[in-house]
Amino acid sequence: MNIAVTYENGEIFQHFGHTEQFRVYETDGKSILSKKTVATLGSGHGALAGFLKNLGVETLICGGIGGGARQALGEAGIRIFAGCSGSADDAVSALLAGKLVYNPNELCNHHDEHHGDCGEHGCGHHDHSCGDHCC
To answer: How many domains would you assign to the chain?
Structure first.
């Protein structure tokens, strides 16, 4: 199973559509077999689903993610674990152990008003930013 994580400096990047790279993990379902960092080369929200599908990704771990991206990933058959933060490696290990803490309802809904990172303002919740959920 291939797992992708939105990635920046070892951490889960908090805005799916603005991620510049993914960390892609090849696993046997129980442990990590290999990992590599892959640049998105500027792909945007819609193109990222196809980008991940072409890499053989079946599962995505991310911070905030918008509704359109969720739909595109769903159509590509990619399972989403949103609302995560912290170490990318730790998140994948937690997922494989069945202990990943995530928020399936985490949604960035600011796309019509703002174009900054999720951490600059609320993402569907008024009391925290996208990164306030731990993996």
So the answer is: 1
